[in-house]
Structure prediction request, 163 residues.
Amino acid sequence: MSSQIDILHQIIDPVAAAMGYEVVRIALLNSARGGSVTLQVMAERPDGTMEIEDCARLSREISVLLDVEDPLADEYVLEVSTPGIDRPLTRRRDFENYAGFVARIELSLPESGRRRFRGTLLGVRDDMVRIDVDGTVFEVDFNNIDRSKLVLTDDLLAGVSGQ
Prediction:
């Protein structure tokens, strides 16, 4: 599946960048009821904002491009959205930009005897994401992160509204 995601990034990222957007995440999500697949594209402007009109505009461009390139064999539903407040963290700079906020990180392979971490982000040093879990600082390999996202907290809400 990841090679499919890589191909989708190669197709979608340049058009998004040309329109002034940055792709945060591309995911293929199976319906809980089976059948349809959702191609989810999360994007934002470099300043972190994204309006409904931006999503619609980007969706139209991606839709046309995917009709031409046809990278997916099965039928799918295209969904273009913002990352939201409790956003996924997918890029190194996300871990830097949201240092001081609570995040959940799940690793592909265990490090320090664990696969899951929930704590305060402390940024990135080289390829190591630093996270404080109850007073213990862990450094996990960025390339070993399977998924991660911010945790919705009062501090996050206050930080976002204060920007």
The CA atoms of residues 111 and 140 lie 7 Å apart. The chain has two domains: 2-81, 92-161. The first strand starts at residue 22 and ends at 30.
